[in-house]
Each structure stands twice: as structure tokens, then as C-alpha cells.
Amino acid sequence: MDNTPQSILSVKDLSTSFFLRDGEVKAVDGISFHINKGEVLALVGESGSGKTVTALSILRLIVWPPGKTISGSVVLDGQNLFELPMSEMRNVRGSGIAMILQEPMSSLNPSMTIGAQIMEAVEINQGLKGQEAKQKAIEMLNVVRIPSPEKRFYNYPHELSGGMKQRIMIAIALSCQPKVLIADEPTCSLDVTIQAQVLDLMKQLRKEIDMTIMFITSDLGIVAEMADRVAIMYAGQLIEITDVFTLFENPAHPYTKGIVGSIHDMKRGGALNIIPGDPPNLMHLPSGCKFHPRCEHRQEICKTQEPAYTNLAGDGAHWIRCHFPLGRQQEAEKGDQHDGNG
Amino acid sequence: MANKPDRKKRYSLMVRFRHNKVAFVSLIILILIFIVTIFAPVFTSYSPTSGTLSQRLQAPSFTAPSEGASPHYLGTDQQGRDVLSRLIYGARVSLKVGFVVAIVGALIGITVGMLAGYFGGWTDMIIMRLVDIQASSPTLLIALTFVMVLGPGERNLIIALLINSWTLFCRMARSQVLIIRGSAMVESGHAIGAGNKRIVFRHIMPNIISPLITTFVMELAHFINAEANLSFLGFGVQPPTSSWGLMIGEGRQYITNAWWIVLFPGIMIGITVLCLNLVGNWVREEFDPLAVKR
Amino acid sequence: MGMGKYILQRLAFTVVVILGVSIMIFLITHVIGDPVAVMLPLQASEEQRVALTAQLGLDKPILEQLGIFLSDAARLDFGISWWQRVPCINVVMEKMPATLLLVTLACLIAVVVAIPLGIAAAYKPGSLIDRLLTGGSLLGISLPPFWIGLMLMLVFAVGLGWLPTSGIGSWRHVVLPAVTLAFNPAGHLAQIVRFEMIQQLASNYVLTARSKGVKEIVILFRHALKNIMTSAITMLGSDYAKLVGGLCATVEVVFGWPGFGHLVTDTIHNLDFPLLQTEVFFVAVFVCLLNLLIDILYAFFDPRIRY
User: Hey, is the C-beta of C146 within 8 angstroms of any chain B C-beta?
Assistant: First the structure.
């Protein structure tokens, strides 16, 4: 029930808030999902929906003040990360779970060579030192297709283009040889060819070493190409999780339907369809269902009562947070509600 | 562009101020000092400049009983003058010098800075070179040179300090003008040229208030310190007038048996400058859009 | 633009500044002041005034005087001190080392105290150590240094008798003045280190480093510290220059330290014009060269500046 045999990462009831001067921002509000080994889970949502905060919360990278993970558990390979002392958590970071952060422009130390920054990942996570570590780092630069890696090793971040910096971020994450890779918009500033190469690389890794990937993106083309399962986030909550085919062919949540649009309109690089209205202000969330102000199918209950996280398909594969899932029975099974598995 | 009409509403301003207890308390202390200084005769009946020699070097009344009409709360100095009295009247001098230098410096600096920022080109370049040279020069030494040439005394001290006081205000005013110029040009190309006066009063002035207050308060603290330094060395205010720095300078030789002559003026300088710094810091944090909050 | 060109540019600016300062001093002393009146007693006759004016070369046109002054200065000839009757430059050179020693020590103390405390305060903002640091640094900046010196002297020299009250000679003599002088730069440094560190710790590259599993102490000292060095150096360098440039004077006077600052105060008491001119010139040169050094150090610490 909780952890199916192949589940490698299991998140339950995770909530992270930011306590600002003007109020509390519930960036992540009680989300639950799991990823199976070797699987690619895409985490999709508008900006501000909580995707990055989710990833940071998993790695316990949320800094207090002003942010705090206030509840939940994250189980990696049977171990609850939130119960670990910080020193052991640091061991998990990198070799357990590695993250490709979102903003390559500012995510590299400006006064360290990029080679040194990759080497650091190698030294800490692969246990190599000196020349061996350096060799690995250069190898990594090759893997992400950086030309003249021996020379580039000594470059500083400001000497490289945005696309190259992004590839360095990928190299750093891969150098950690993680069990689970969290990729936060890893291809957003890359041109199409490089993007294709990077995605191919990830697919290769998945095949060769059974790498598990949590792919944060808002590019549905990438979702279609890479993902096995997809989780949709809205206003800090998970509103739908299902396999990729169901997502595109028969989504249950009106929001999902809205952003996916017509399957025929899809191409790589396709942004999410625009739904009229704005995402809610996380400090003043609407009552009831967070999406109801923008939903064409809303009814009275949607305004007042928050829909429970329910299991549609009965086998734990399709979870939804909606009172009236599209094309499904009204009031889906209450028996499997809010179980913590998606 | 820094346009915060809502923040400048008096109500929210006072609320914010009260939230930052430290700055608020500092301001209260400063106001108290100010009041006591202005209404000096109310608070002390002793003369700050003439004393009774028979009562010299008496300890503060809380450590030992004292003679005289009313207790010498902080003791007497080497000429029998009441220390508290000298402290209060000394505040007048120290604060006066600080204020005059800061105000005149502000007037000159802001004018020059606005000219530089507004006209640009050669005017700007020359003025900024002057500012750079001034900033790179040993300010204390130049002040001392003035003192040597003109002779010591309060008036000359003010002149000496004035030389250095305009540069910071100049830089601040100039950068404000440049910010406004930049954004005004972007917003509406025809704004420049048409109605210069309007631009100055509507745009530049309001935005200059907060950095102006910050700079003014900080400079005030700086000049009070500078006056203390120079008076301590004997180059500033001359006896028998008292200023805090001078009291310390004069009391130096009696430190072993009459520590109170030196202790209290120093504490006063410290408190005043500290409170000014705290208030100035708060103003900057609250209103300067470029300052990074924690 | 390579390093070479950068240095040349800065040198050129330095020359301009020194020129500017020299001219300023010259104008102040010769145009506003009246050396002749200062040197002669009040009852001096008109003939004596004229004679002295001619002797000092003050009857020549101002520009010519300025020219002579500048060309002499270029050859490091600043004339004879009126008060000490020896070449001015000798007087200055004799006293400089003592001040340099004192100020260098003070800044070292400041670095050793302020940087670790600033880092600790930035790491745990709002904690006790943070509040102590902020309060302490503010006090260090607000209290007048000569007063701090006197208080320290009262406690440690007079009260406890551990250290001498004044003079120079052994390591004991330098402790109190150096510690006193260190308060101000330590306060500035602590504040800037704390401020910059907080910013660095909130930046994305620290997040990246943490996500790799880098230990916190490594992040503080290997990653973040390097990025704040330029600000820290600027602050310290500026304070160093100001201290040598005269702010050490009051502390030197308090402790009877025979350095440059003490010399300046004596120069003024003795109304020694040429000596003061020399002193100002020296300080101007020193400050400019120091700034140049700082600019070069900048490039060392921030690779983005190396073109």
C-alpha cells in the first residue's frame, strides 16, 4: 500500500511554508506521491505552483528563515530522510538524490572554476581525489557535450554561455551518480539540438543504470517524450497524478484538460496552454477547491469544500483532487482517500 | 523607479517605526538629548564655564557626598565646574557644530550634485573628478590644515569640517537625479525639456527625501565625532567653553583620580552617535530600494 | 583591457589626485593663511615682514610659488621644518614606521576578530551571537577611539597595572594602542562581512553546493568567503588609509605613541607650515598607492574583473 516493491522515493503529506512579514505562503500543501525505480515522473505546473519548493523540500534545502517544512515524510530506499541528522542527510544529498537546479545563470560559484565545481561533486560523492577526480570531471564535460573540456575545465562561469552553464549544472548533478535525479527545468535555456542531446543522455542513463528521474518542467513536449507518469501541481497541491498516456488522452482534472489542450496541437517546446485567469496568490488562497475561480465546471461545493485527494482507477495509479473529475463518476471512491500514494 | 506613495502615508510610517523598537528608542533618546540641551538652564543651575576651585575634583554624588548648593550628580572637574552642567552645555556646542556642518554641507552638496546629474557632460565630469579627489584626500589632515592656518575655535572648526561635508551629499543627489532621468526618459521622451521645474519638484524631490535623511543622519554622527576628535586635540572649541571632546581632552591628565571627567562625555558621544547610526540605518533599510533586507 | 592597462589608468588617476591635494594644501596655507604673520612676533616691524617674506620666497607670484613647490615636491625636497630645523622629509620618515606598525597591528586584530564573528553572525541571523556582534560593532564605531583608549588605560594600565600607560619599546607598549585603534575597523569589517555573507548564503550557488552534499563549513570558508573578499578588502583598506591619514592621531596622543599622528598634532601646535605640507603630501601619496594596491587585489579575488 505505502511502498510498492519498486518504489524508491515516497513522499507523504509534505508541507512547506514560507513565513513572511505579510503572512504565510503555503508553497507546498500536503502533497503525496511516489516514484518507482527506473521511472521518470514529470512534475508539471505553472510557475509558483510549488514544483521547485517540492524538490528543495525533499532534499531538505529549505532555509529557515523564512521557509520551513512543517510536515511530511520523504522515504528514500526505505529510509525516512526527515528523521536523519543533518550530517547523514548531507551524505544522501548527491549520491542519494541529486538535483539540477533551475537557474544556471546564478547557480554556479563565480569565483571558482567550473572544473573545480564539478570535481567537488566527484570528490564528495564518488570518493575520488586529485587527478582521478579531475579525469572524471573532464569525462563529465564530455558527456554533456562541452567542447574542449580540458581547457574549459579552467574557465570561470562568467566566461561561459547560458547554455553551457546549464550543461555544467547537469554535469555536476550526474557526477554525484545519484539514485534519484531531480531535474528542475534542465533544458529551458538550451537550443533544440543540445536539448535533444541532453534528453537522449537522460534516456540512456535510465536504460543503462536504471536511474530514476523526477523531471520538473512546463514543456509538454518533453513530458510526452520522457515521462512515464505525470504529476500536476496547482497552488501548492497535487491535483492529478497519472500515467502519461491517460494524461494526454483522458485527463480527469479540468485544469489538466485546460493545459494539455488538444493532443494535435502538441509539439516539443510547446508551452502550457493559457487558461484564463491568474494563478492564485499563495497568501490569500481561495476557499474550497483552489482552482474553482478559473474552472468552467465549477459548482457550489467547489467554492466551499476542498476536494479530497482520491484514487480514481482503484489500483492506485490515477489520483485526483477534484469534486467532479471529467468523464468519471461523481464523488469518486472515498475509501482510498488521501492515502499518500499517487 | 522608487515610487512609494503608500509607504509615505504617515500612518504606516509610524507603525513601521514602532515595530523596529531599537530605532524607535534611539529616536526617543535623541529627542530627549535635544530637549535637555535646548532647555539647559532648566536642568542645571551650575555654570559650565566658571567653577569654585575649592570644590574641584569632587566625585559624582552617587559615589560620595558633595558640597555646594545642589549635589554635583556627575562630580566636578579640575576647576570646580559641575560636570553635568558642562555636559549639557557641551552638548549644545557639539550638536551645533554637527548640525551646521551637516546642513550647510547638504545644501552645497545637493545643489552641486543635482547640477552635475542634470546637466551631465563636462559639468558632470568636472564635478565628479573634484568629488573623487576630495574623497581620496586625507580629510582630517586637510581640516587640521585649516585649523592651523585660521587658528583654533568653533567658527574655524566649522569651516574646516565644511570642506569635506559636501561630497557625500553631492554623490547621493547626483545618483538620484540620474535614476530619475533614466526612468523619465524611458517613460516619456518628451518629459525632459518640457517643464524642468516640474521634473525637479515632482520627481526628484520626493525620491531624494529618504536617502537625504539617511545621509544627513549619518553625516551628523560623523561630524559630531569629528568635532570631538579635534576638540580633544585642542584644535576645536576653546576653553572655557565646553564641548564633549574638549572635556575629555582636558580631563585626561586627571584620569587616575578623577575618572568621571573623562567617562561621562565619552558615554554621551557614544550614545548620541550610536542612536544616530541606528536611526540612519533604519531609515536606509526601510526606504532605500537598493538596500537588501535580510 | 588587460591588467597592465588597468594599472596604468589607476596610476594616472593617482597622479591627478596627488596633484589636486597638493594644490589644495598650497592654496590653503599660502592664500588663506599668512605664514609670515604667524612666524613673527606681533611687534615686528614692516621691514622685518618684508625681509622674511622675501626670504621665504613668498613675494613671488602665487603660480610661481606653486610651481616651485610642486617641482621641489617631485624631487622630494620639502624644505626645512621650522620647528625642528631639519629637512621635513627626514622628520616624516622617522615617525612613519611607528604609525605603520600600530595601524597594521590594529587592522590585523580587526581581521582576526571581525571576520569569524561576522561569519558566525551571518550564519545564524537573529541569534545571540548575531545580536552581540551587531551591538558590539555599532559601539565600536560610535565610541570615540581616544575615549576607548583612556578607558582601557584606566582599567588595564592604571587599575590592573598589567600594561604600561604610554611610550614605546616593548610589545607591552603596543597592546593597548593597537587594541584601541582596532575597534573602529573591526566594527566596520564585522558589519560588512555579516551583510555580505548573508547575501552569499542566500544565493543560488550555495544551494547548488549544498545539493551536492558539501559540508556547511566548507561552504562558508571555501565558497562564500571568497566572494565577499572584495568588499571586505575595500572596507579594511579604506579604514587603513584613514587611520594612517590622521585618525590614529588621537590614540597616539593618548598613549604617547611617537608616530605620524602625534607628529601632526605637534606640527600644528608649532605652526610649522612646511612640515604640515609635507605630511599632507605624504598621506595623499600613501592613500593613493594603497587604493591602487586594493584595486589590484580586487582583480585577484574576483575573476570577473580580470579582463
Answer: yes
Query: If you average pLDDT over residues C167-186, what whole number do you get?
Result: 88
Strand ranges inside A140-257, DSSP E: 180-184, 212-217, 229-234, 237-243
Dig out the grid coordinates for C295 from the structure. Answer: 584595486
Each domain of chain C, given as residue ranges in start order, spans 3-74, 92-301
**C288 contact B CB<8A:** yes
Spatial distance between the Cα atoms of C2 and A208, rounded to a whole number of angstroms:
48
pLDDT tens digits for A247-286?
888 888 888 888 887 544 555 455 556 677 778 888 888 8
Q: Which three cell numbers stand for residue C128?
A: 545571540
**Are B51 and B82 a contacting pair, CB within 8 Å?**
yes
Average pLDDT value over all residues in chain C: 84
Mutate to test the interface with B, among C81, C183, C268 (most CBs of B within 10 A): C268
Closest Cβ opposite residue A172 in set C125, C212, C303: C212
- Ramachandran angles phi, psi of C96, nearest 5°: -60, -45
Q: Please answer whether residues A45 and A239 qualify as being in contact, where contact means their C-beta atoms are separated by less than 8 angstroms.
A: no
Q: Please tell me whether residue A52 adopts helix, strand or coil conformation.
A: helix
Distance CA A289, CA B82 (A): 75
Across the interface, of A90, A93, A111, the residue whose CB is closest to C301 is A111
Name, in order, each residue with C-beta under 8 angstroms of A228's C-beta and a sequence gap of 6 or more: A39, A40, A41, A243, A244
pLDDT for residue A186 is more than 90: no
Q: Which residue has the higher pLDDT, B9 or B33?
A: B33
Which pLDDT tens digit goes with each residue over B113-141? 888 887 778 888 888 888 887 777 777 88
**pTM of the full structure:** 0.82
pLDDT at A191: 80
Backbone phi, psi, residue A331, to 5°: 45, 70
Closest CA to A209 of A37, A7, A43: A37
Q: What CA–CA distance (Å, rounded) separates B244 from B228?
A: 6
Domain C92-301 sits in which CATH superfamily?
MetI-like (1.10.3720.10)
The pLDDT assigned to A326 comes to 80
**Nearest residue of chain B to residue C36 (CA atoms):** B149
Tens digit of pLDDT for each residue in C196-216? 999 899 899 999 999 998 998
> Quick check: C212 and A121 CB within 8 A?
yes
* Spatial CA neighbour of C247 closest among C145, C160, C156, C158: C145
Residue A80, beta-bridge partner list: A75
pLDDT digits (tens, 9 = 90+) for C121-152: 999 888 888 888 988 998 898 999 999 999 99
Pairing mode, strands A40-44 and A67-76: unpaired
What ipTM did this prediction achieve? 0.83
B215/B287 Cα distance (integer angstroms): 12
Chain-centre distance for alpha carbon A230: 10
Using alpha carbons, list the distances in angstroms from residue B13 to A157, B27, B213, B294: 43, 14, 14, 20
